[in-house]
Amino acid sequence: MANIANTANLTNMALETRSQAQNAQAAGNHAMTTLPDGRPITIHMQNVSKWYGDKVAVSDLSFALGPGVTALLGSNGAGKSTTLKMLTGLLRPSKGEVRVLGQPVLANPPLYRHIGVVPEQEGLYPFLSALEFVELAARLHHLPNPREAARAALQTVELLDVAERKLGAFSKGMRQRAKIAQALVHDPDVLFLDEPLTGADPRQRVAMMELFTRMGAAGKTILISSHILYEVERMGSNVLVIVHGKLAAEGDFHSIRALMDDRPRRVRVTCSDVRALSQALVALPGTRSVHVEDGALVAETSAPLEFHQAVPRAAQQAGARVFGIEGLDEDLESVFRYLMS
């Protein structure tokens, strides 16, 4: 029953935004423009579903996002790509409303000049050079100086030195960066990215993560689909988790993790006397287990706050010195594992 209760809590956590959106919709008010924290709403899905015959791909999605980086998480087949396609006007919802920058997305070419899209599919022309490919995107957006805009975008993704090389000769990671360059060439306000770091080498992954983080901090709205959780965690803490086409959780993943009170937390304690302190920790209320891992103690506790507060006193009584206390499962991966289970 605890799991059922917590699932309900997680589904509803951090959804002041969602509730406001639903209330505004019920009142026929499409003028709601700000989130509870004061940021402008730039992406808004309201009761959106998509089905193919008897198969439901997305079911009753409602959320509102503002500037910053938000991660769209879910396993294969969860509905992430379908959601992104509806947000970019590539797919018509079976039900519900999709708005970006306050406007309906479908059949709205002027809006597309404010949106950048990096699809998961390749969609590249191997006979074009990187410069020609990005310049083509600039021309389609009617930029006044498409060649210079293309060069600037390629510089941003560190491809300017190979701008004249054909895309067919690029590695997977380089092709991904070319796709990102074409999405950035017109300086969009909203950026949709579907697995944008696939194939990139470690250095370039870091560079792209830093780029997206800077853009979010500068006021751009970035929705990024990714399955590499530690990378998502480096770019921001706001997440949308989709499970079987439904919104399982929304908000700051640290807040989501805090609601999982039916799951024990793992805490690593490094100290001068492992044996003495382990006996003291086992006696603490809420401790489920204690074992030694790489020379440190790893405890499972159902009362993490009380545990952290009690460790120094327990160490003093055991005659041991504590060098560090670290929560091991406060990260996004633990949140995702929990929700998917």
Beta content comes to 25-35%
Element-level helix/strand string:
HHEEEHEEHEHHHEHEHEEHEHEEHEH
Distance N terminus to C terminus?
A: 15 Å
Strand order of the largest sheet: 6-7-8-3-9-10
**CATH architecture assignment name of the largest domain:** 3-Layer(aba) Sandwich
Overall body shape: elongated
pLDDT averaged residue by residue: 83
Question: Fraction of residues in helices?
Answer: 25-40%
Largest sheet: 6 strands, mixed
Question: Which structural class is indicated by helix and strand composition?
Answer: alpha/beta
Q: Ranges with pLDDT <50 over ≥5 residues?
A: 1-31
CATH topology of the largest domain: Rossmann fold
Number of domains: 2
Global Rg? 24 Å
In the CATH hierarchy, what is the class of the largest domain? Answer: Alpha Beta
Q: How many helix segments?
A: 13
Q: Work out the number of β strands.
A: 14
CATH superfamily of the largest domain: P-loop containing nucleotide triphosphate hydrolases
Written overview of the protein:
The chain is of the alpha/beta class and 341 residues long. It has 13 helices and 14 strands. The strands form three sheets. Strands 6-7-8-3-9-10 form a six-stranded mixed sheet, with helices on both faces. A four-stranded antiparallel sheet has the order 2-1-4-5, with helices on both faces. It has a four-stranded antiparallel sheet with strand order 12-13-11-14, covered by helices on one side. A hairpin with a 2-residue loop joins strand 1 and strand 2. It is elongated.
